[in-house]
């Protein structure tokens, strides 16, 4: 069995790219790299999402409530919540999804 995933870096638009780091049916880990001013547009999905801010600073909005995060912060986004973010300082987010986001494969 191959335990190492070699997924390509994908342009996600709006100053953001993403790369799947690891995955199986129940779990997926994805790195999102943001340019300063990059934006994760508001969206929702049926997956529970945990976000770790590896670097940078961001304003996140979840179901209409906004808050600021910086390197070292983490939080959980419930399934089906409308959420998005704006990047204030170039940065990287590590997101974990359960179950796996098949749309990223």
Automatic annotation (TrEMBL):
Cupin type-2 domain ranges (all copies): 32-88
**How is this protein named in the record?**
Cupin
Xref: InterPro entries: Bacilysin_H2HPP_isomerase, Cupin_2, KdgF, RmlC-like_jellyroll, RmlC_Cupin_sf
Which Pfam families does the annotation name?
Answer: Cupin_2 (PF07883)
């Amino acid at each position: 069995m191959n335990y190492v995933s070699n997924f390509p870096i994908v342009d996600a638009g709006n100053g953001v790219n993403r790369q799947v780091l690891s995955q199986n049916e129940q779990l997926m880990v994805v790195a999102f790299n943001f340019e300063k001013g990059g934006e994760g547009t508001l969206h929702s999905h049926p997956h529970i999402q945990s976000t770790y801010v590896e670097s940078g600073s961001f304003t996140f909005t979840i179901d209409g409530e906004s808050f600021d995060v910086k390197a070292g912060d983490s939080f959980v986004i419930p399934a089906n919540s409308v959420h998005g973010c704006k990047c204030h300082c170039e940065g990287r987010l590590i997101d974990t999804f359960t179950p796996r986001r098949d749309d990223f494969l």
